[in-house]
User: Fold this.
Amino acid sequence: MTTDPLVIFTPSGKRGNFPVGTPILTAARQLGVDLDSVCGGRGICSKCQITPSYGEFSKHGVTVHDNALSEWNAVEQRYDDIRGLVKGRRLGCQATVQNDVVIDVPETSQVHKQVVRKRAEARDITLNPTTRLYYVEVAEPDMHDPSGDLERLIAALRRDWDLPALEADLTVLKALQPALRKGEWKVTCAVHLGDDTFAPRIMQVWPGYFDGAIYGLAVDLGSTTIAAHLCDLHTGDVVASSGIMNPQIRFGEDLMSRVSYSMMNASGADEMTTAVQEGMNALFTQIAAEAEIDRNQIMDAVFVCNPVMHHLFLGIDPFELGQAPFALATSESLSLRAIELNLNIHPAARIYILPCIAGHVGADAAAVALSEAPDKSDDLVLVVDVGTNAEILLGNKDKVLACSSPTGPAFEGAQISSGQRAAPGAIERVEIDPVTKIPRFKVIGSDMWSDDPKFAEETAQTGVTGICGSGIIEMVAEMRMAGIVDAPGLIGSAEQTGSPNCFEDGRTQSYLVHDGTATGGPKITVTNRDIREIQMAKAALYSGARLLMDKFDVDQVDRVVLAGAFGAHISPKHAMVLGMIPDAPLDKVTSAGNAAGTGARIALLNRNARAEIEETVHNIHKIETAIEPRFQEHFVNASAIPNAVEPFPILNSIVTLPTVTHNTGGADTGGGRRRRRRG
Assistant:
């Protein structure tokens, strides 16, 4: 067994052991990690910047000490003196491995930039924002009727717009008199109309008629990605959308890893709060630049997030969420000021965070409920927000139930041998010929299939770099339909499957998807360990849904809605073959896209929707999977592909799955199947 230090890269999740003295850039290249470099490792281009993470990482089973990397050297110092390095960053070509280390590759150092697929969905939204612009003409000061300029402005707003008594911050008072006189007693005011926390308030004053716009942000703060939609508060239009990877990934890809990091490291929670707030500010700077506006024009924002992200964003230690009974610091909605969260938008901007449903069903699930409205549905609808932690809603007009399932990062391409985040060059669509058992695929950035003669030319810029989440789902489902994988999840040999792409890989079999080594690219395979990772993720997802169906005493649902950016790219047929979702007519399985982001936009643009979702959340009944005895039973059954006991009659009328068995009795399945207890 090797004693060489372990190097773990995030967000890719790729890892390997390397001799002491190996440059991080070299380790990244050998593992196929997406780390840029133009100068050949001479410390000139600075494109290989990395961020080492220190502390105890129970998820990875390592503790990273201060001496994990070589000392800061003269090349790095020279670059820092001339151009400046972000605090905590190192140059991957200069820092060498000394001990076990976790290395984060920031987005700016990646060749193939992450595709954050959380677009703004088209939706008719009643426009009734909390912050509005009002133009007024103010009475000039009078020696015979002395009063302050602010008091006369408030009186004018009440007279012309029937606004209630208003307050103003000190920043408004400082700018008020010059604005009134420059505008010849005519001004435009941005007014926040108030809520249960804040009284109605003047936020800014412009001289004369302000012909510009004010904006709001709808932010979906996810475990893996942060997406924001910039909306014009007057028209409701989405003027820009952007997203970034959540910088907290370096502390752990899944939520419990981050909770564990905060438990194991004294300043862990504070580090993660700082990281996400800095990431948020980088995103807001980016989106304001894209829209060509001043960040000070952003005066309102709505945030949705899961409970762990909720606490870490607010600077609350998520310790209690890591143990039963999973108590939230608060489950109610919150109204805050941007300055309290160190956000770089208008200093007086108001922040609204939707309520959480329960311990592990957060404000993002509440936003999905607001967007998809299962409580208003006549038929029984299952809404699944697919992500690192899946939120599941099942309900109709009678009642709505909710639960969460810890699916883990496998659906995002992490912990998969050739897996990666969605980026140009990643395989996202797959078909396997039922006769030849040879795959063909599409990659992000191209509409061509890999068997097209012009495919190599078309993808020369990006290459074929790995398999993203939607690709691995289609891959495993196609392997099951082709008989390459059996129901328990075991890959067969070339002789058993009739596929020349199956090959012996240690004590198990693997399947070759693409061999790019001839042109310097990676060899992309699916291993039995990969199959097991997907089995565990999909079993967790299905078990949560099946548990809610038990509570409704039903074996089928009328409709299935796949929410989340990832859900928008899943093929319903492949998801059902895999056993991710319950059996249902394929035309009744639809995508809602980024439903959490849509819910955030609704709450941003319609202040009445905030009260509506607060009432709805109080009526949603939370099911805690951790204490439900049938969850484990469903999980074991759902580990098979598609399921060990569920009949899936609708699926079987569409697809005939081979009844093959690849277990020869003595082989190590690599975790490819789970032994069921017999009662």
Remarks:
- The chain has 17 helices and 29 strands.
- The first strand starts at residue 6 and ends at 10.
- The radius of gyration is 27 Å.
